[in-house]
Amino acid sequence: MIIGSIYVTAGAIIVGVPLGLLAAIYMAKFCPAPLYKFLKPAVDLLAGIPSIIYGFFGMVIIRPFIAQLTGGLGFGALTAWFVLAIMIVPTITTLTIDALNSIPMGIREASYAMGATKWQTIYKVVLPAAKLGIVDAIVLGMGRAIGETMAVLMVVGNAPVIPDSISSPISTLTSQIALDMSYSSGLHRSALFGMGVVLFIISAALVGIVRLISKKRG
């Protein structure tokens, strides 16, 4: 279940972070004003949709597609990757937009004065200057991915085994706690609380690693 939690979170970050960053860059720097007025509220709305709705969408829409693609039932890490990626993209996008817009205009104008193009200014000046805000956005997205319960519970298959492929059913710490807590007692319940502590330690460790990497690059 520990491996399943890390497996699902890592895949969601790999899929969701590039999508969120690209969406934020487009909306903050390239999107026409009339379209931005429509997209920004839409992204904010997606960030507030209950997780069970995402889980239902993944089970009804994404799972059959994955089943057809892999030849299995469609329950597993691969389906969870796409569901969690869709869930974390609005959070990452919204916070990254705020980080990009917080950079003073003078920094960009200095880059243009040196002869840089708009894309060079974004890639080599604006993104590095907004690094801390972007890291915070990724950390929050990662926290939502590893702590998600209902959406994951509906699409991973809930098989407490080490997966042999990305399409195999797995179980995560959050999904197992949600499944067992209602009828657990005694040592079983103590084990579930222990799993919660392990989940907290993993979350804190992942955040620490991201912060450390960011600090070293700085």
Mean pLDDT equals: 86
Helix-strand category: mainly alpha
The gross shape turns out to be elongated
First-to-last CA distance: 34 Å
Order of helices and strands: HHHHHHHHHH
The beta-strand count equals: 0
Helix tally equals 10
Largest sheet: none
Sheet-strand content, in percent, reads under 5%
Topology:
Blueprint lengths: L1 H29 L2 H15 L3 H20 L6 H25 L3 H9 L4 H12 L1 H17 L2 H6 L17 H8 L6 H31 L1
Helix pairs in contact: 1-4, 1-7, 2-4, 3-4, 4-7, 5-6, 7-10, 9-10
Short descriptors:
10 helices, elongated, single chain, 218 residues
Overview of the molecule:
The chain has 218 residues and is an all-alpha fold. It is 79% helix and 0% strand. The longest helix is centred in the last third of the chain and has 31 residues. The protein is elongated and about 65 Å long. The model has no long low-confidence stretch (mean pLDDT 86).
Outline of the structure:
By secondary structure, the protein is mainly α.
